[in-house]
Amino acid sequence: MTQPLLTPTFLFRFAAPCQAADKLWTNMGCTLDASHRMACFAELQGIKTFAELRMAWNAGGIAVWLEVKGKQTPPWCRATRLEDSDGLQLWFDTRDTHNVHRAGRFCHRFVFMPSGGGKLLNEPAGQLLPINRCREMPKIVPQDLIKLRSEIRPGGYLLQAFIPGEALTGWDPAEHTRLGFTYAVIDREVGWQTFTVGPEFPFAEDPSLWGTLELVK
């Protein structure tokens, strides 16, 4: 059978709703039910999913809940090698601009890992990373501004995060209810799971390849 020259997800621009929640974070992390589940349009390419991502928002920021299953080995994570580690990467553009190929100051890339932090490398870790070829960086934020919790489980892990609005340059959900958005769950053992296009395209640095996150009340 002849393979298509372009993947189906490259031919369309996808948008997904992100439901609001009154409370995003407590000392126990975030509790998001199935109504907050995020789509994985990469399934249109026949990619088998191994992770479930849930997200919610309010004026204070964005909460993230990720569960990874189907692993045989513990996640490989190093705070000194964030880009090479197992975990979740999120890209946001608080102005939802899709007609540029280089990131600007409203574009963000966050990397979160279930372990690899702390002296014993058993604590979750994450931070804002620069986007390759970006024209301008968003404001730098203190790492302790982002809240993280994780739980290593048999066959996978649970990772939770809270990104406050202060960590997102241009965050103004009252005026801007659509964000440029994509994500990638990366795992050395089971592969990649992405929002739309996969690593065969340079979505990590090109906002024109991102989809849209609709902030729904």
Can you describe what's shown?
The chain is mostly beta strands and 217 residues long. The chain has a single domain, classed as Immunoglobulin-like (Sandwich), CATH 2.60.40.1190. 0% of the residues lie in helices and 38% in strands. The strands form two sheets. Strands 1, 4, 5, 6, 9, 10 and 11 form a seven-stranded mixed beta sheet that branches. Strand 7 and strand 8 form a beta hairpin. 42% of the residues are buried.
- Structural shape: globular
Series of H and E elements: EEEEEEEEEEE
Number of strands: 11
CATH topology: Immunoglobulin-like
What gap, in angstroms, lies between the N and C termini? 45 Å
Count of DSSP H/I helices: 0
Judged by helices, strands and strand pairing, the structural class is mainly beta
Number of domains: 1
Helix content: under 10%
Q: What is the CA-atom radius of gyration, in angstroms?
A: 16 Å
**Average residue-wise pLDDT:** 92
Stretches where pLDDT falls below 50 for ≥5 residues? 1-5
* CATH architecture assignment: Sandwich
Give the CATH level 1 class: Mainly Beta
Q: Profile the largest sheet.
A: 7 strands, mixed
Strand content: 35-45%
